[in-house]
Design brief:
single chain; mainly beta; five-stranded mixed β-sheet
């Protein structure tokens, strides 16, 4: 039976974006695991743009985001100096062409996808330094694996590697031993455990592979026996094509999986066995873990309530709660849903949340 965590809401109207991040210093960098409450103070933004696809830098000092004012432009917000430090034009391609700016692990580069290409921005000079066309790959997802390389998921079931120093793209591995087919839309890499959480079509499950594509643990595609203990996580949906999101916790101990109106959380134990918990039934596709790995927040960028209705799950005590931070219909759908690495701030739509433990 589920209990309910407390999500406390305080709203503050601000005059603009530049005052956001430094108004309420927090006494703790992370939500305390000894508390049954997740307390967030929200600030609604009075700005003339809608932020889209925001991402925090690894040191939590900068926020990069796209706005609906110029879909080919990225803005970098400096939290220390309380100003927008730079605006970078990524491409002259058609409207709404760039997606998902993502910081490299060392904070020196930003990768952004758009118009069938990956653009690499060098942060210090605020310029695109690499533009790699990926027309033939059917890209559905990408992730940084280290400071110099990204892994790219093809919807056809291939994983590729992009080296940002050489610009070379190479095929890393094929997901299934059977003939690859369309339908792969999500994967995630965790640098702590050095593993991908990735769909495996033949077993209708999420498996774990290293950079070379080898499966973790005692699992082998050729000799799979359903009754044996395997290092796999159950799908929340019927097929791989219905998986809409896969997200590791920072410490590599849990994986959240969404698909077909459901959410599963898989716990990866120290002996590499896995246990899947069926958490909830909802259509949320966006997911973020708190940096301490306790809290999982999910949201749906589309629909009447859009991103402002947040599902909160306490993975330690199996609590869940749904909180609306705006009245349904006020928010518009967008992909801004991110938790700063230091644990202090949530950025949801055009709303900043200051995270406290109650």
């Amino acid at each position: 039976m589920f209990h309910y965590a407390t999500l406390t809401i305080h709203r503050v109207r601000l005059l603009g974006l530049l005052l956001l991040l430094c108004l309420f210093p927090l006494t703790s960098a992370h939500t305390q695991s000894t508390s049954d409450q997740l307390v967030i103070e929200w600030e609604n933004l009075d700005v003339d743009v809608k932020t889209i696809f925001a991402s925090w830098s690894p040191d939590s000092q900068f926020l990069v985001y796209q706005s609906d004012r110029n879909m080919n432009e990225l803005s970098i917000y400096d939290a220390n100096n309380r100003t927008v430090a730079a605006r970078i034009t990524v491409s002259q391609a058609p409207y709404r062409s760039i997606l998902r700016p993502t910081w490299s692990p060392d904070g020196e580069h930003i990768a952004v996808w758009g118009s069938n290409a990956l653009y690499i921005i060098e942060v210090d000079i605020r310029q695109v330094v690499l533009d790699v066309s990926l027309d033939e790959l059917n890209v559905s997802d990408f992730t940084w694996v280290d400071e110099q390389s990204l892994s790219i998921l093809s919807s056809k079931g291939y994983v590729y590697t992009l080296n940002i120093v050489t610009g070379e793209v190479t095929q890393s591995f094929v997901l299934d031993s059977t003939t690859p087919g369309y339908g792969y839309s999500a994967f995630d890499w965790n640098p702590q455990v050095q593993l991908f959480a990735i769909p495996i079509r033949i077993t209708q499950s999420i498996g774990f592979r290293n950079l070379e594509g080898s499966l973790l643990g005692n699992y082998a595609l050729g000799d799979w026996v359903p009754d044996e203990q395997k290092t796999l996580c159950d799908y929340p949906s019927e097929t791989v094509g219905d998986i809409t999101g896969i997200k590791w916790s920072v410490d590599g101990s849990k994986v959240a999986i969404t698909g077909q109106g459901a959410l599963n959380v898989c716990n990866l134990r120290s002996d590499y066995s896995a246990q899947t918990t069926k958490v909830s039934v909802h259509n949320n596709r966006l997911m973020i873990w708190s940096p301490d790995g306790r809290w999982l927040l999910t949201a749906n960028p589309f629909g009447e309530s859009a991103i402002c209705q947040i599902f909160v799950y306490d993975s330690e005590k199996n609590y869940q709660h749904v909180q609306t931070i705006e009245e349904p219909g006020v928010c518009t759908g967008n992909e801004t849903f991110t938790w700063s690495p230091d644990g202090k701030y949530l950025f949801v739509g055009n709303t900043i949340g200051h995270v406290k433990s109650g």
